[in-house]
Amino acid sequence: MLHRHSAHNEAVARIGWCVAERRIGVITGEVGAGKTVAVRAALAALDRSRHTVIYLPDPTVGVRGIHHRIVASLGGNPDPSRDPGPQAADALAAEQAERGRTPVVVVEEAHLLGHDQLEALRLLTNHDLDASTPFACLLVGQPTLRRRMKLGVLAALDQRIGLRYTMAPMSNTETDSYLRHHLKLAAATTRCSPTTRSRSFIRPAGLSACGQQPRAASPRRRIRL
To answer: Which molecular-function annotations from GO does this UniProt entry contain (predicted)?
Structure first.
């Protein structure tokens, strides 16, 4: 069962707004902060009869790879002899205009995207003389993504971003709740009140000193607290 905390709930709500408004969203956070969990929770709440999720887990496929994945995910056949960019743009527009479904493009590890890939995603939003965008796009990555958006070469993309959200680490109170939650799931038989000592025990396992990053600690370590 999912443990919800304030940063997670805030991220889910903001992602939902971003999708509803068909905007570009940038969700960043340290490794293990819960970015992917929040995105999946937000997507799970969508009406699948009105949304089509296009998941891009590998940003190293290049511009053509991104375009091909979009076309294929929308039921098309990418033409290897042509530039797939216009085909991808047409497929996104048709999904929204003809089928009444909003495409939601989710790019994981987006901090690894090259400038050409980020620019290609921006160009896909150019539709109907910029009066509207036929899809929502979620760029999910580490904090370097947020900093890269400030580069002059990406100014045009930066101006189109409708959501910027950085997932903060859990507070000590939220960490205590997280530990109790997983101990309960593990059917722990002894009472356990997480303390400063137990929290300091978890952090050497790879957690940030400024707060908890849940997935870095193994279930076995949590049970032994």
So the answer is: ATP hydrolysis activity
Q: What pLDDT was estimated at residue 194?
A: 55
> Mind listing the pLDDT tens digit for each residue in 81-133?
888 999 999 999 999 999 999 999 999 999 999 999 999 999 998 866 555 78
117: left (phi over 0), alpha (psi -120 to 50) or beta: alpha
Average pLDDT over residues 39-67: 95
Cα 66 to Cα 60, 61, 62, 117, 194: the distances in Å are 9, 7, 6, 8, 45
The pair of structure tokens assigned to 72 is 């294929």
Which domains can be identified in the chain, with CATH numbers?
A: 6-166 (3.40.50.300), 172-223 (no CATH)
Distance in angstroms (rounded) separating the CA atoms of residues 100 and 200: 51
pLDDT of amino acid 200:
52
Q: Are 23 and 136 spatial neighbours (Cβ–Cβ below 8 Å)? A: yes
For 71, 109, 134, the CA distances from 105, given in Å and listed in that order, are: 12, 13, 11
